[in-house]
Amino acid sequence: MRVKDILATAHPTCSLEFFPPKTESLGVELDSALQELLPLKPAYVSVTYGAGGSTQDRTYDLVVRIRRETGLPVISHLTCVGSRRDQIRALLERYAANDVNDILALRGDPPRGQAGDTPPAGDFNRASDLVAFIRKEFPGMGIGVAGFPEGHPETPNRLKEIDYLKEKVDAGADYIVTQLFFDNRDFYDFCDRCHLAGIRVPIVAGILPITNRAGMVRMAELAAGSRIPAALLRSVDRCVDDTAVERVGIHWAAEQMRDLLHHRVAGIHLYTLNSARGVKRIFASLGITDASQLR
Ligand SMILES: Cc1cc2nc3c(=O)[nH]c(=O)nc-3n(C[C@H](O)[C@H](O)[C@H](O)COP(=O)(O)OP(=O)(O)OC[C@H]3O[C@@H](n4cnc5c(N)ncnc54)[C@H](O)[C@@H]3O)c2cc1C
């Protein structure tokens, strides 16, 4: 079953995101997170991808391994910046041969040192080009795209933001997964603006529990454009140590989820950062032992 079919029939979904580990010890951490989290029965999982192909093989290996060992639908993130059509085609053929049928089609960001006005040479300028390519050459692939409730930092204004997002949907995307956000009002407003623009595909909300101060700072850099509300910052400021920060972050994320479920969101995508702890505590706070109980 592809993710778009799951979103159509078994919502609200709860899905989990992992990244491919770069070292052996991080690989051990990931394996232990997977062992603890898969019994929570996520509807599907996704695996991130280094822009410009920096973790391409690791992403491929992890996606195929999870798919083979668990039978779960697995979304492979795929960035197109700096890539050629033949490279992307070859990768997608390998995925299809391994029964991986879901791609999150992204532009990605130019590798460090190439930021600015000189994008690396490649056949794709934007995610919408990648969506159109996949839709044409791999019609059986399910395709998700990224959405930014608070706006993408490079987009000149919020009206254009939704126009560009609609281009991705019109090119063939089946659903949208959002950048993480901490204020649900931003997400609801984003959904309303999508609806006004005629976007009718499911919108999956990206949620990240803050678990320590350093992680919060790193997250602010990686998810540029995501605002940390003053109420959350004030609570974090009061914390005496990272144990307290974790409690605050998990409580905040659980409350966000509770409210999103109340508003009948299509799905919630949890950024796990390859750690089981935050997700398990959120589930405990929601009073559930596995994700199927959200329906
Ligand atoms: C859920 C999610 C998962 C992600 N996973 C990864 C990952 O695994 N690996 C990774 O490297 N990055 C990942 N990213 C980050 C993403 O690659 C960056 O945010 C990137 O800068 C934008 O990607 P995009 O797919 O939204 O690009 P696009 O949709 O192509 O947008 C990129 C920029 O181009 C502008 N634009 C789009 N269309 C037009 C047009 N017609 N005319 C003019 N301007 C236009 C947009 O407004 C935006 O500013 C993820 C982001 C999200 C939200």
**Class from secondary-structure proportions:** alpha/beta
Give the names of the bound compounds: flavin-adenine dinucleotide
Proper CATH architecture: Alpha-Beta Barrel
The side-by-side strand order for the widest beta sheet comes to 1-2-3-4-5-6-7-8
SSE run: HEHEHEHEHEHEHEHHHEH
Q: What is the tally of helical segments?
A: 11
Q: Give the helix proportion (percent range).
A: 40-55%
Radius of gyration, taken over Cα atoms and rounded to an integer in Å: 18 Å
Q: Estimate nothing, just give the exact number of structural domains.
A: 1
The top level CATH class name: Alpha Beta
Descriptive notes:
- By secondary structure, the chain is of the alpha/beta class.
- The chain has a single domain, classed as TIM Barrel (Alpha-Beta Barrel).
- Helices cover 46% and strands 14% of the residues.
- It has an eight-stranded parallel beta barrel with strand order 1-2-3-4-5-6-7-8, surrounded by five helices.
- The model has no long low-confidence stretch (mean pLDDT 94).
- The chain binds flavin-adenine dinucleotide (FAD).
- Residues 48-49, 51, 77, 79, 104, 106-109, 126-128, 146, 152, 154-155, 161, 164, 167-168, 177, 179, 206 line the site of flavin-adenine dinucleotide.
What attributes does this structure have?
295 residues; eight-stranded parallel beta barrel; TIM Barrel; 46% helix; binds flavin-adenine dinucleotide
Topology record:
Elements: H1 3-9, E1 13-18, H2 24-37, E2 45-47, H3 56-70, E3 74-79, H4 85-97, E4 102-106, H5 127-137, E5 142-147, H6 158-170, E6 175-180, H7 184-196, E7 203-207, H8 213-222, H9 230-238, H10 242-262, E8 267-271, H11 277-286
Parallel strand pairs: 1-2, 1-8, 2-3, 3-4, 4-5, 5-6, 6-7, 7-8
Helix pairs in contact: 5-6, 10-11
The structure holds flavin-adenine dinucleotide.
Residues 48-49, 51, 77, 79, 104, 106-109, 126-128, 146, 152, 154-155, 161, 164, 167-168, 177, 179, 206 line the site of flavin-adenine dinucleotide (FAD).
